[in-house]
Amino acid sequence: MSTPAVSIVTPEMAALASSIDYKLDQRAPAVLLPYQQRWLADKSQVKVVEKSRRIGLSWAEACDSVLCAAAASGQDVWYIGYVKDMAIEFILDCAQWAEHFNSVAEAIEVSEELWLEGEEKKSVFAFSIKFASGNRITALSSKPRNLRGKQGRVILDEAAFHEAQGEILKAAMALLIWGGDLRIISTHDGDDNPFNQLIKDTRAGRFPYSVHRFTFSEALAEGLYARICLRTGEDWTAEGQAAWEAKIRANYGDDAEEELDCVPKNGTGAFLTRELVERAMRPGWPVLRDQRKPEFTWLPSHTRKGEILDWCEEHLQPLCAALDETHVSFVGGDFARTGDLSDFAPLLQRQNLKRYIPFMIELRGMPFEQQLQILWYLIDHLPRFAGGALDARGLGFQMAEQTAQRYGQTRIIMVQATQPWYLENLPPYKAAFEDNLIELPMDADVLADHRVPRVIRGIPQIPELRTQDAQKKKRHGDSFIAGALAWHASRTLAGPGSYGYEAGPARATRWDAAAGEQDEDFTASNSGAW
Question: What top-level class would CATH report for the domain 274-492?
């Protein structure tokens, strides 16, 4: 059976939609807001978004669905919501866009499919629009069996609220084989929900998907309330927007963070558990610590250089000489001058891609010139050095820049960490601990540093609060930052491989290449720590 297509295009929307390629004149805003445009511009085969309620993302997806289905080179679109009303609303949104594009070939169709489940007869309704291209947009019920044998694009809307998320996704993945694609859209429904795990796994790099995040505040900043005022005929003011936002947040109460800010409930706390970090730690691997008195800064340059060279030859050279020359190496560095530490973490990669930090370097009160001297000595003595990532905020910018000048800007990543950078790059470091892919020195301060990061409003970050070591000296997650930067470098920079490599004569190594464990005869200690 079928019903006539219903026009729901208001005069205001028709005026807004005068040009879908967003080339409107200065008197009218773009049809789609910036975050909606970014979502549609991403042509990844599988893309996932965690979003706030009611920011118009499904409406924008309806626009893209019409463009996809109406094109002669397009494909069928299958929309799956978790309730019937969502299916109807999406099809009506598509009808609105299709009417604007003058691309509807037939009216909206409603079909009913019957099947037996045990002794009970059940039915499912499918709402669809057929286009002159021969393709359809069809809204289905939330049953995994509905996707079997189909082809095209799948839109899983409010994925966190589907009872059979895993089965639906498994069925949807089959459509990718012949060129289909998948859009997974949802607000959060708890920290332990499979949708939230999908988001975390994607950010950790376990899945090759594209991931987006659109919060209520970001949507407001990009014109959501202004668009609402345009629809309602009200004048936009900053005061009006602030009052409206406060009202919306008050309506959600304790659920506002989850519903509006993309923070799943129970999602605030320690980023790494103690158990995860301790499992990755190896006894006997040293942390070299050096603290200089203030007067050291004012010694003649040649005196400072000589003292630090002696320190490097005594403590660093033996450790570097013990490294396996066949392993690719990277480095991560976090700079400071007074108060916080400077921390350098060499990271080596075995043939099986498991990585390890055989020792770390921590410096206090060290002049900038000598920090670079130690860092460059380390890099020059690492085997098959592929590159590094260095903190380039504030004081670190000059030293990161000089290191990039020395070793090449393609090998040194100058990182100015922001919340978006943390959101994208800290989850893979956490995944390394979860997947048992990293090893590091067993040290109380290194453990404490790795327990500093917190998940705040859904984003892992380093709080401003400082911690103290056993000597009552301030720390700020320094070795965690160095380790995370080294891991980032190992994921971002290609290792040696574009040129020939011939290993030198075999020699004793203090780190076993297969297991990363210390040899029994290795007796080096933290003699350089004081």
Answer: alpha beta
